[in-house]
Amino acid sequence: MILNRRGFLTFTAAAGGTLLVGCGGPATQHTGTALGEDALAKVLPSYVPVDFAKPDLPGVNGSTAGYLKFPTDLVDAVKDKVLNGGEVTAMTPAFWPLPPGLGENSYWDAVNQRIGGVVKFEQVQGQDYQAKLGAMVAARQVPEITVMPTFTIPPRFSEGVGQVFADLTDFLSGDKVKDYPLLANIPSETWHACVYGGKLYGVPFRGELFPETIMWRKDIVEPLGGAAPKNVDEFFALCKKINDPGANRWAVGDVFRSMVRVFGDPGDWSRDSSGKLVNKIETDAYKEAVKFTRSLFEAGFVHPTIVAGNNTGINELFEGGQMLIHLAGMGYWGEAMRRQRPSNPAFGLEAMPLFAHDGGKPRYVVTAPTAMVTLFRKDLSPDRIKELLRLMNFVAAPVGTTEHYLINYGVEGKHSTRDANGAPGLNDLGRKEVTLTYGFMSAPPETIIDAQYPDFVKAKHAWLADAYEHQVRPPTFGLRIEEPAEYTKLPKEFEDRTADILRGRKPVSEVDQLAADWRKAGGDKLREFYDKALSDAGR
Fold first, then answer.
1. What digits encode the pLDDT tens for the residues 436-451?
2. Pairing of strands 277-279, 269-271
3. What pTM value is reported for the model?
4. DSSP letter string over 142-161?
5. How crowded is residue 39: how many other Cβ atoms within 10 Å of its Cβ?
């Protein structure tokens, strides 16, 4: 699938991987917003699932389904042209080299012919997208369609969203979404991030409930006598067994956030036994994870690049076998397989089974499953909005449809070919022209469709089925909460101070001071905001 191949989920997991809920210095006061389940229920679209191709590996209790053979008999989910001719302007992020433009891109030509109009994309490189987006929104100069990654949403966005973007509530809420059945196939919780001030403003692009986890080079570790650990003592022993700097091989890269989970991460916010709301940085899980991860640094198990605080080229180090255990986004797993398997059929990267520090039941606090929101310009007529929603409906077509194939793989025989399992792969022209442009506007529910690597499909399906059994939904899950503006910046000071402790630049005893300083820097005020928001929602 092009999404995973381009590594967007890996990028978003890295971009969104904060250590704790924000804190910051003084700023203009803003009370923030919070919408509970009842308020959301009034505006969220109905969920009406559709199925065009039965998976070989059905989901387990809601987990992701998998296909060991890619569907061969594709059907048209959308019978008519979705656009009325003419042009549509759109802005999307790009996390890869830009493809050829209109008139030089046969993939765009093919999609435009199918949808009945021309989409003119303004693509902005990912590292520049937030600044570009902020400037355009502030100036109220946006295209008809704006794709907004959730990590680029400007501070105090809810206060001004209705001045720039169209309210879609009357078009999509409740059963109105049934006019767009492929959008109705998107689960309700994925729409939460599209709601501001009690109104629905966007169409979602899915994210990951489990955005990241520990990956390991199982193909190298097992021949060295290593096995998946069941507790932190076994994890430390595994690192000791496989670590060999003399052979240019280190045990681990950056695993801190996963170690917080291993020690019982309760989530960014949780309530203790007395009912008090507690931030992650105040918990024993955070402190013990700092201490344990520091022991990995002290033992010399961590790759020097990570020790130096440099994340440049870490994928290459991991895939090259210079470090054997590392934290990565779930999308990276398939991306690495597709990159390495053609030249190294034995390449065996996998997600490590979840485990708890004491060998007990593991837990994984899940995140809101929305990576991006697509918004329409405010001045569009109702007929134009309906036209653009038909386009969103088209690109949300799931596996088993001609629309899904076209959006993700271009024209069969021209941009892609199928292998013995029916799995499509891009050819040279496809790799040049096919990127996620239309496909970033919306997306169907996630499936595992890399049938060219059935062992990967089985392994990821099994990992996610297990993870679903151990998922924990934090008190904030299912609520639409926007923090007061003075707390929306990333907690850089405390990330840096944690990094100093991990690397031995500060004594490990300082971990106890982090929480006290966080409270003084504004954490207690932020706690008051969240406490009220959660209490009002009955949590």
1. 999 999 999 999 999 9
2. antiparallel
3. 0.89
4. --SEEEEEGGGPPTTHHHHH
5. 16
